[in-house]
Amino acid sequence: MAAVRAVLNPGGPGRATAVVLFGPTGSGRSRALRVLRGELLAGRQPHALIALPRHTRRRGRSVHELLFVVLLELAAQGWKWGFPRFLADCAAIAAPARLSDEEPLPVALERLRERLEVPAPDGVLAGIARRAARGRWRRGRVGVEARDEVVALLGLDTAQARADLDLLVLRHFLADLDDALPGRARLLDPTVLVDDTVDPTALLVAWRRAREWREGRGQPLPRLALVTTGERDLLRGLGLLAEDGGPGPRLAEGLVVPERRRDVSSVALTEPLTALPVLELTERQVDRVVRAAGAGGRGTAEVVHALAAGHAAATRELALAAALLGGGTATPEELLSAPSSDDVTPVGDRVLNLLLDGLVVGSDALVACAAARTLEEAATLITTTGLHPRSDLFSLAVWSRTGPDGAAVMHPLLRLLLLRRLASRPEADTDDWCSVFAGLAKLAERRGDEAGRLHHLLAAGEVEEVVWRVEEGLERDSGEAWLDVVRVVTTSPLRPGADVPVQRDSPVRSVLLQWQAANDPHRVAHRREHHSRVATGLREVAGRSRDGHLAFRRAIREHEEKADR
Fold first, then answer.
1. Which domain of life is it from (predicted)?
2. Which contiguous run of DSSP H or E holds residue 75?
3. CB-based burial of residue 512 (10 Å sphere; 0-12 exposed, 13-18 middle, 19+ buried)?
4. Which of 50, 62, 44, 78 is nearest to 180 (CA)?
5. 437: closest CA among 519, 494, 395, 501?
């Protein structure tokens, strides 16, 4: 929330910006909006939360409809501001064919309110209409020209005309807001919060265009801050992400994704629209959630954090499951198989449905995609099977994280749950665990990606070949380059339920298998033991390396520290 505050009004009144809070479903985006709204209410600052009824979720809403909800919220809070230009637009849009006598404004507003299914306290609509009428009397009949322009744009019925109508309506709303705000220097610029029940794309695009329109005419910047929520598909649509899902350093039309949270204040002073990822829960925060649920102490918190990877909703579900199991330290398998809060669906299935949000649950192709390391790798795998590349499989709601190299990757928990389904397929299946990973190994070989090939071969159970190739690399490569390859190889998923043998005859084999196990959430109870064995194996391997002894010492120290936690 500190980052959001820094962005919204970085230079005081008149410097408002827009923020998109993004993250996978259940990551805490809506909760962040509620916290921010509580702070605005406590500070008596003008704001509005756009949250439409759940059965209208994701239904397309025009900008004038969303701004009408804002107007109702401001009026309900006691901000008695007139919006004559904007309401004239609303009346014209509601009845564009009435070119002579205008429909009574209260009637038009009530019909709009009913269509949106939003409440309005008694007398609010009448008060809005009275203030609008006074404003029109003072400024002349502002609705006549607006009606002609609105009717002309509605008559075109094109995407560009609709975008231009959105811009016109927002310009008039902002002009009315300017008239209401002078002399109120202690007020922050009004803040509009848009939650997940609304697609904010049209409003964000219109806001950006209105800002550019004002800048081009030397007018003050809009005094309206926006905070919206969304998934990565929204960011890609706005130009905040590249087509492959990776972030760009500075992207189209002045939009930016800060690379580090400490960059947000300086970014907000120069960029009109900023995207901020919702922070995932830390180990300490997970521990508090677990204890609050009565689910035990540190041991349970470690298991929950290893599985949920900081995902807020999944953390709550797993903590409740642990409490229902008696509060002792449960294994990952026990937690994921336990009944969820609805007492019907197992926790693992309920969390999977939550993460996918109804996209492609149960899809065989999606399960196969989980074996891929990145969105690009999954696309290559799936397109070779003939599936259309514009499928929901490639939605950034699925590929909701950014990997170390900037590529889009699955959230670790989503990948874990899908890989469990892949592991449950019969071995004779053409798309079983070993077949899928063997196919990915072949694709990596075609790309010349040897580390990626070994990664997938290790997952497929081809341990002997992987050990042999890694042994060869130790004789050929520098110590640092060898460690880089091993780090890639050992992020390979371990098949659920597989044994992890303790190999004493080959230190390279021991390093590979123990490091792979240390990275696996199912093995969290034995993680310290695995890290200790990796450190022991690396000491033996370092003596055979040509160089890179400093890199080996750093790696050994890293595993020793993890073993001692």
1. Bacteria
2. helix 63-76
3. buried
4. 78
5. 494
Asked if pLDDT for residue 102 goes beyond 50, the answer is yes
Three-class SS string for 393-429?
HHCCCCCCEECCCCCEECCHHHHHHHHHHHHCCCCCC
> Residue 357's closest CA among 246, 228, 242, 232?
232
CA distances from 251 to 24, 248, 549 (A): 22, 6, 41
Task: State the average pLDDT for the chain.
Answer: 80
Structure confidence by residue, pLDDT tens digits, 449-474 = 999 999 999 999 999 999 999 999 98
Distance (Å, rounded) from C-alpha 246 to C-alpha 209? Answer: 25
Token pair 């909760």 is at which residue?
Answer: 31
**pLDDT(529) > 90:** yes
Which is it for the CA torsion 99, 102, 105, 106, positive or negative?
negative
The C-alpha atoms of residue 371 and residue 355 are separated, in whole angstroms, by 17
Instruction: Measure the CA–CA gap between 468 and 465, rounded to whole angstroms.
Output: 5
Beta strand pairing call for 408-409 and 401-402: antiparallel
* Residues ≥6 apart with Cβ < 8 Å to 309: 280, 411, 412, 413, 521
Please enumerate in sequence order all residues whose Cβ is within 8 A of that of 394, keeping only pairs 6 or more positions apart, or say none: 375, 378, 379
**Dist. CA 85–CA 261, nearest whole Å:** 39
Ramachandran class of 545: left when φ > 0, alpha when ψ lies in -120 to 50, beta otherwise: beta
Sequence-distant (6+) residues with CB within 8 A of 119 are: none
Give the pLDDT of residue 100: 47
Q: Using one digit for the tens of pLDDT, what is the confidence trace for 41-86? A: 888 888 999 887 655 554 567 899 899 999 988 988 888 888 888 8
Amino acid at 459: A
Q: What share of the chain is helix, strand, coil (3-state, %, to 5)?
A: 60, 5, 35
Q: How far apart are CA 402 and CA 272, in angstroms?
A: 23
Are the beta carbons of 117 and 100 closer than 8 angstroms? no
Q: Extract long-range pairs of 156-162: CB within 8 Å, 24+ residues apart.
A: 162/62
Structure-token pair, residue 334 = 């026990």
Instruction: For residue 387, give the 3-state DSSP assignment.
Output: coil
Structure-block tokens of residue 352: 């999977």
Amino acid at 102: E
| Contact residues for 128 (Cβ-Cβ < 8 A; gap 6+) | 71, 72, 75, 83, 87, 109
Closest CA to 81 of 89, 90, 72: 72
Average pLDDT over residues 517-528: 92
Q: Which residues pair with 11 in a beta bridge?
A: none
Query: Which pLDDT score, from 0 to 100, does residue 261 have?
Result: 46
